[in-house]
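pasting Arc family DNA-binding protein for the record, 145 residues
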Amino acid sequence: MARTDPQVNFRIPLDLNEKLKRAAAANNRSITAELVHRLEQSFKLPVLHADPAVVEWAMTDFVERQEKIHAEMSENEIADLQSIVFTDHGLRALREQLAETQAAAEESLATLLKSVEDIKRAVSAAERKRVPKRSSNSRKPSSSD
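structre below
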């Protein structure tokens, strides 16, 4: 922001001011830069001009559907969904578990392939020991003997 930009003074509730400070710090911005960014973003959002009756019907329908879903689910199912589906932490945990499982499967496969190779070598060595090689000095039995 340039010093030539107009200065605007206004009052905001204390809790909103605290939220603004935290957001500015999290985004590495000054409070002014955070305010400007958020205002600019708000003007980019589409403005919906809907009939209030339609909006009320849609909201009521949404709430009724949510209540029906919750009524059909147990407390544990709701808690599971909230912890797994609706939180980024749950998704990260699932990705980590998948990566760990995949790594363990790859390690097991490598161990199995090594074991197969070891078995092949052992079988081959056993076959070589079982079949005696003929030496060139060995005399073949003839039909006259």
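DSSP finds five helices and no strands in the chain.
The CA atoms of residues 24 and 55 lie 33 Å apart.
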